[in-house]
Fold:
Amino acid sequence: MCAYLPSTEAERRAMLEALGKESALDFFSSVPAEQLAAAERVDLPEGMSELELSRKLNGLAAKNRQFAKIYRGYGAYNHYIPAMVDEIATRQAFVTTYTPYQAELSQGVLQTIFEYQTMICQLTGLDVSNASVYDGATAAAEAVNMCLERRRRHVLLSEGLHPQTIETVKSRFQYLNVEVTLIPLAESGETSVEALAELLDETVCGVLVAQPNVLGIIEPAAELFALAKKAGAKSVLSINPIAAAILPAAAEVGVDIAVGEGQPLGMPLSFGGPGLGFMAARQDMMRRLPGRIVGQTTDAEGRRAFVLTLQAREQHIRRERAMSNICSNQALCALRAGVYLTVMGPQGLREVAELSLSKAHYLAARLAELPGWSLRFDGEFFHEFVTDAPISGEKINAVLREHDILGGYPLADGGMVWCCTETVTREDMDELVNILREVG
Amino acid sequence: MSSNLKYSKTHEWVDFIAPDRVRVGLSDHAQESMGDLVFVTLPEVGQEVSVGDVVGDVESVKAVSDLYSPVSGVVVAVNEELEDRPELINEEPYSAWLFEIDQVTEQAELLDQAAYEAFCEEEG
Amino acid sequence: MQLSFEKSVAGRRTYVLPAPDVPKYELPAEMRRTLELPLPEMGEPDINRHYSALERRSFGVNDGPYPLGSCTMKYNPIINDQLASLPGFTQIHPLQEIDTVQGCLQALVEAEKFLAAVTGMDRMTFQPAAGAHGEFTALLMVKAYHEDRGDSERTQIIVPDSAHGTNPASAAMAGFETVNIPSNEAGGVDLDGLKKVLGPKTAGLMLTNPNTLGIFDPNIEEITALVHEAGGLNYYDGANLNAVMGVARPGDMGFDLVHLNLHKTFSTPHGGGGPGSGPVGCKAFLAEFLPHDMPIARKGEDGEYVYDLEVPEKTIGRVRSFYGNFLVTLKAYAYALRLGKAGIRAAALTAVLNANYMAEGLRDYYDISVPGPYMHEFVLTIEPLRQEYGITAMDIAKAIQEKGIHPPTMYFPLNVKEALMVEPTETESRETLDMMIEALREIRSRVDSDPESLRQAPRTTVIGRPDETTAARNPILRYTEPEAE
Structure:
């Protein structure tokens, strides 16, 4: 029997009787008999007690390998999550509430979203933010959609974007008469300014660049976007929200839209999801932003009130002509991001960024001292960098595993992308370097 | 309602301000059924339009409705004031014009006031 | 209530991190942010109280009944959230070596098998993050299927006028043109209307069954057969699966693809709008078009299963990063395991019983859009009350708030005037159902005796009805510091 039915068998029988039915199956008279029979024949396990369920899922969790120290990023980042984040994000009214369409009952949730939107604007320096989309990759795809014009349907993606972001954009527009071209990276690991200049023409609607890029390099965003602007294309920057605390804000480098993966803001790795797609834009693109947006207004007595607003952009009103089909978003993850940013504050967030930056530079320097090891790029980086070594990435990681360490992300060309966050200590990094020295 | 205006079946009013130039707005009936308007998207000046083309839309809080061109021609003016004050359409639908089209060649079936009132009645 | 920014005091903070243990690295000046970063500055006690106050101003499933039609706001079991927060799941990097994530992959493979069986499908992907995302994914597969057969003239997706707005919006994103068909009086597919639009351009049909009026379409097999004969595919929008899970299967109704909303039918919490999960299931002949990566199981030499990831041969590509909203999928799988075959069926039967019980209790007080029996939900129309007393569905919904009940879905579906869509779900007790019936009856009695009290509702909430017109005309979408005087 269903574990979560409050009504007893006797109550259900009494209710059926009151309705003049013998069985709840009587309500299904429109369903063809063979369909009912087929469903009864389905091979499914019998239910479990809560204890058995707990045992089963603990067993699955135990089959995963959880590492004590993590040097892998490449799109998912292991930052420290303050205790407050889990505590607040598991409070039941936040967890179990629906999308706040009924404003009078939902002022709390609406305010958390309004505060989140404000913080995303503060991080990016832009004017408006939506209430979230699924993840960083779909946020980038939505940004491309915002750039499209009737006569400009060519989008340029930096090869420094995460490969999964590039793939997501490509599949999103595969049937919409949109041309997608990659801007190659220069020797320096930066997006090639020369290549961009050559690719730009009057058909290009948008240029997407990641900051820092997937190899960790800090991009010459201002220079790239100045070119884009001159050619009449929109500029989109996919940012790491932690790096945003210390790198020039999106608004400072001339972007029209900033997007990104919000997972570093208080979400655990979780095998890649749920995370958070954030999006912010300049005022003039407000009505092209997809998804839900919370606005401030008043009630009849003049009390401050929050509501879902600008709804006529959305699918439930505009249907096939909506900017996007998005309905459910990642609200609880946006709440986590909001709590994280509130707990850290401007100073705390800068510390996370500075610590990650400094530790990555410490480790990079130490690894480069190893015989035969080198850093692939000279350019400035944030908290990820690429090494080339005399031994393969797979071999390195196989050794590190024995020490409960998740090593960097091995690239197909033999290089390795390392990531440091505030979670690793100098001692950890020295230990890592010593292990690698032994490997030779 | 103003008696020297013509009306399209898509609820625009049409005022021939010259033999081949029209001014177009939203009928009182249409603004009434939409409720408080919150945003207007207008065509671009210079845009060539044909009868029945969607040239913009009007939004209320919970609905959106297309604006159709009642004539073929070239858009020569749009009422930019509406972009900041869409409520003018609710307040004075017959002064709050939307756009003007010049070099009119064709026109949709346009109704006079009585016929339009009957049409709205029928539509329910 | 004040915003966090208004409670902020310069220099106040919560200390979380240790002092640096490595030399500070300085980026060149041109690579440093010069723009201010005005995030709130608060201490932990104030932050805690801030969010407690916000929680009190919110209303979750645990705060009262939530008969929100089409949204299936059933109880969200605590154990699922707890198990999904085991470090053995949350601390796993998505790009770890495959032999270190066998538990995650096993969960995905087993969840796929379970939910494919419930829906009568052969394969299922958990990549899509929400229902709309699932629709888009499935429609890309429909497009890829026809293109692969060289059948590129199939450009139309047929959608009933009662459908959720995501259906036409998703169709547009996959490059299809939407063809709307009218509903018949029971809200079902109008067969003549369908026949009229079917043809060589038909790529597929998107349908919910039971439909948005809570009726199981008695012509379902004829409908799906007609679409197949025309060369199209049938897509099942799983929004209403809670009525029929364990009792009837979309696969047996003639559907080729389905999406589920795990945050509806499989009890994962809504979180104020997400994260959800919108897995897409398909029949075997469509499996080669699924998005990547697909978790799979192989029998190893020792007879034990080994789990891996695979890219389907003619994949539509990637629809997001990594493996979907993994923790949400996990919660839904936990729910499915706990219920098992009998529990899933009992949930559907009870959801349907509860809806019919409520409908019966309201029949003499309100107009119901179509006669029953209903599946898991039914739609009241307030139109007669609007005509006679000027009371709208909105007024009734706002008055319900005063009773500690979340209002039903308002103004949907679009083919019912002044609609209130009621879905009690299986997790409400008989007393709660009686309480909701009584509340709606009392409100009905005020329609004639005291209509003003309904127009002014809600009067007991922290705010009254907000001015949505001003919100949309002059959008204030973020806090800005007041100008210094």
Residues 78-338 of chain C form a domain with the Aspartate Aminotransferase; domain 2 fold (CATH 3.40.640.10). The radius of gyration of chain C is 25 Å. The longest strand of chain C covers residues 202-207. Chain C touches chain B at residues 411, 468-469, 472-473 (CB under 8 Å).
